[in-house]
# Entry
Amino acid sequence: MTAEAMGAISPVPAREPQLRGQTVVLIGGSSGIGLETARLARAEGADVILTGRDQGRLSAAAEQVGAQSTFAFDATDPERLGRFFAELPGPVDHVLSTAGGNYYARLADLDFAQAQRLLDEHMLLPLHLARAASAKVRPPGSITLMGGTGGRRPALTLALPGALTAAGPAMIANLALELAPVRVNLLAAGFVDTPLSARLLGDGLEQRREHLRATLPIQRVVQPADVASLAVHLMSNTALTGATYDIDGGQQLV
# Structure
């Protein structure tokens, strides 16, 4: 190619960061999906606020990503959660919550105290969070919650998780109407290779990874960065609200 022809080619303009000048709150931001979303949001120009239960882990995470601030508290405490949002010094643009655990048991073995905690985490916590956060999120900002795809097929031990999996999308769609023009969406993940997964599976972690690599259509394990990428897209694309977005590598298909 001649120098003249090369000079006629226009340079590709640099892409504008998707979240420049915006503030993102990560409920459960000290590790896993929350931390990876904080990292990507920072790379896209956002300031980030991290919350979690352990101040030591929060401080380490904040140093990694250059967080604006951290707050250590239990997000399942609705009074403390409400106070956190009420005391934020200014408006924010996006909130992602990864709070909430899992509990699997057959009906005969069901611990109703643990079942109640799961209901609180997956049904009442999102409602408390949505009400508390909506007063601080400036439109067309977003609230993104975490759900899953694993409970969509009936199976032993899934009576409660399956019901909660089905309820999540309905809740999100209704919250999107109630909180408009603030946007509300749900991330439905399958197995994600997080530190929490490692703690839960222990010595069985590598066996689980090998099984997923062999059976998933994508032929690899879903990573926290995969979910973070989708979370940031939901924040930046202001046409998206009231919907559930699966990210499980095709796990529910097999």
